[in-house]
UniProtKB/TrEMBL annotation:
Keywords: Membrane, Transmembrane, Transmembrane helix. This is DUF4190 domain-containing protein. The chain crosses the membrane at residues 40-60, 72-92, 98-116. The keyword Transmembrane helix applies.
Length: 118
């Protein structure tokens, strides 16, 4: 079985010179250089999701008192942005899955805090 490697996304075997996985369609190699392709901003969505989720949750829970309407509206918007970024990162199988999951969990908790206090 020489000339076979595993897909970076789904793990299925494929030919070493394949540019995309025949099973899931994930890009494997840059056709011109033969190097493994890197998507532009691969970690950006996951990092944005993680940072926004954590900061939003900390911002809502930091002072211990009830949040005013502006804080809740800001927390609602930021948590929705974090959820969208995390979901896109996971859906498009970008690197940084752990950061995206952390962002989704913390943004979900922040969203629940916002909705509970409205």
């Amino acid at each position: 079985m020489k000339g076979l490697v595993h897909c970076r996304a789904c793990g299925e075997p494929l030919h070493v010179q394949a540019t995309a996985c025949p099973h899931c369609g994930a890009p494997q190699r840059d056709a011109a250089s033969g190097a493994v392709s890197k998507s532009a901003g691969g970690l950006v969505l996951a990092i944005v999701s993680c940072v926004l989720g954590v900061l939003t949750l900390l911002g809502l829970l930091s002072d211990g008192g009830p949040a005013d309407r502006d804080e809740l509206l800001g927390g609602l918007c930021l948590s929705l942005i974090a959820i969208v970024c995390g979901a896109l990162s996971i859906y498009h199988q970008k690197p940084g899955r752990t950061a995206a999951v952390v962002g989704l969990v913390t943004a979900g908790a922040a969203l629940l805090v916002c909705l509970a206090n409205l």
